[in-house]
Amino acid sequence: MIKKEMIAMLLAGGQGSRLGVLTAKVAKPAVAFGGKYRIIDFPLSNCINSGVDTVGVLTQYQPLRLNTHIGIGIPWDLDRNIGGVTVLPPYEKSADTEWYTGTANAIYQNIDYMESYNPDYVLILSGDHIYKMDYEVMLDFHKKCGSEVTIAAMPVPLEEAKRFGIVITDENRKITDFEEKPENPRSNLASMGIYIFNWKTLKEALLAKADQPNLDFGKHIIPYCHSKNAPMFAYEYNGYWKDVGTLHSYWEANMELIDIVPVFNLYEEYWKIYTKSDTLPPQYIADNTVVEKCLIGEGTVVCGEVYNSIIGCGVTIEEGCVIRDSIIMNDTFIGNNCEINKAIIAENVKIGNNVKLGVGEEAENETDPHIYNHGLVTVGEKSVLPDGISVGKNSVIAGNIKPEDLEDMCLASGKTLIKAGDEA
After folding, report:
1. pTM: predicted TM-score of the whole model, two decimal places
2. Radius of gyration of the chain (CA)
């Protein structure tokens, strides 16, 4: 019988709809980050750096790129004979086949996978946060407290607390109450969606609540364990943690990587972030170019000026371009004399010559102001933008765009142009 002390279950099935066109064809955990990584690299690297060598990755929405990226787990040293990384999509059963309908339902549908390792503890993680955490330290805390459920929690400003699940604790960090998104928070300790359960406790809760629609940890499993008087503790975390759930927080987290002293350091020797890297030539910076405060991926050719930006791998930036405060993802081509300000450009985009992005005055986005805001311009993957067009702020453009799709070759600030089904 295989025996693992602790296994991790990594929830990576989410669409991440608040990232707009960035997640139209790819799951949020597979979105590029920091020039060479994908968001899921961070929790996976945390696992292997913490000595957790058995990880089930639960996928659902648009899983192809995520599955290809994870493969058999080689970059994270998770290609093990016993344990390692296993991708767990929903599958057909002889009865009651269903998609994963909630975070805890996804875990419930994989009870057999967890059972096969006979673990003492199960670590539940989310696949879409940027942070470094030693889960071994959290496990030591869990054991020391005699806890059955430990919730990683971090202090947030009280005025923001109502957006989170909030834990209320006594002086020993024992949880006395748990409130999901309360109107009047009684504490500022917010759950990070990272849990350690004793396996017996988790299994009992999942089986007891299995019939609940959209079975969820915050709404059902935690309250159930609390009602059974299971000892529950909050493990306080004070490091860097970013939920890159919106375009602005995603842009911000990328930009923080290029600060002179980055809050989130990718260069620490003892806590490496691992990723699947293609075999690419080195980047090439041509003569008479300017590159200031940037991260630039391998295989990228820069012939223009780039300031304060994150440039992915295999990108081409032609002569005469000026790029500022932007994120340009892998394999994108940018023609001559383009002017790009505060843009997020997805993978495999082709931009013609003399294109201007992020120009003019700001205006509220006409279709999704809660997604496209803060002056950003967003370009969907595999889009083709013709020569000479200009695109305003708080706008989104995606698809194989032709000059006749635009009025006077211009997409004004706050406008949405998403052409479906005809990407190049």
Report:
1. 0.90
2. 23
